[in-house]
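Running co-folding for protoporphyrin IX containing FE.
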Amino acid sequence: MAEPDKQEFTSILKKQVSRRDVLKAAGIGGAGILLGAAGVGGAFALADVLPDIQKKEKTDAIIPFYGKHQAGITTRPQNHIYFASFDVTAENRKDLIRLFQDWTEAAAAMTEGRPVGDESDNKFLPPHDTGEVLGLSPANLTLTFGVGPTLFTKNGKDRFGLRKKQPAELKELPKFPLDSLEERWTGGDLCVQACADDFQVAFHAVRNLARIARGKAVLRWAQAGFQRTKQASSKNETPRNLFGFKDGTVNPDVNDPAELNKYLWVQPGDGADWLVDGTFLVVRRIQMFIEVWDRTSLKEQENTIGRYRDSGAYLGQKHEFDPPDFEKKDANGEYYIPITAHVRVARGDGKEKILRRSYSYTDGIDPKTGTFDAGLLFICFQRSLSEQFIPIQTRLAQTDHLNEYIVHRGSAVFACFPGAKKGGYIGESLFS
Ligand code: HEM
């Protein structure tokens, strides 16, 4: 087999042809063979010609970590999430601050596609970075950090001198009717929401943050989630959940600062100055009984949600973004959108708006029933829990028809800090 020369490879790669074309030009069929050929008998290493392309991918896929607000909130949802909740084991405030400083440094590096920590030549020590994303683009990675009520007081103890800083809003959610919460998916002192267009990149980020936290915080629970990827559809359409319905149509306009100040960002005077420009996050691990749903008629499914499955339009309307008409009745005098339809109950009088940013999950089989453990990692952000999420969920828990097909298994609330400034660290306002 004739070996390709460096010039030939470089010109192929500069034209940015596909990986298959590169292999064809080399006259070989597998990546392993290609690397072997270049490394053993070849006049050059493949890495010599790759950086141009990698650099391009990197600059295309970076979401700035520093800023007024944390990324990963109004950011257009990436394809994957790895959500992790931590319990703090640090015994003093100084170590807790150190954790946030170390996390900030690592997060800034990873979101730019740089490895965590310094490169070390000492082969007798574990590398700083775990290595599985070397050479990958950061894939629009965002890392969003928050603190739960138990960071401020746990079992009556003020471990870090933060009791006075606890926002009145930041307390455990009330128990809603039909909640079936399990300890293993509930609560947490800290959270990290890692979102990226590549799952390995998202997981790598949390894995490395957990590693950095050793001795200061331990994982309490974690959940992976997904949406359809850009490979499956490059159209910027609303993603569908595992019931097959478009999910995320109605949301505050993330390009309208006035709307975001009203519904999303904590404002001066709200009661926690350190949290101004931050927000409250609710996460609910909601199991969906997809086998039961799949045996349900399309009409019943659409009446349960209050929208048509295919178009995503409200019942009685044509297009996904047409406004609803809750008074409209069909020829039999029935409301198009039934009284118990999810969208009608969720909307109420329309005063409470939350920013929903949820992902589907699948987690093998539910050992109790032998059915899929699958559902929605429901995540929403809001300026006030008591005036937004809680009234909506109170209504849903009471009368939402969807309750026949879902059950809430996990829950947690966090206050997400404002963004960090370069040179500062995430969470700084809480400790200053
Ligand atoms: C597995 C559970 C859930 C499923 C499958 C689900 C599904 C949906 C779907 C398909 C829509 C219509 C499209 C859209 O506007 O996004 C919708 C709307 C909505 N959902 Fe959910 N949802 C779930 C849980 C929740 C929860 C827990 C809340 C809040 C407490 C919530 C709040 C809303 C709101 C506010 C709307 C928009 C209502 C409107 O104004 O039309 N949902 N949901």
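Result summary
The longest strand covers residues 372-382.
DSSP finds 13 helices and nine strands in the chain.
Job closed.
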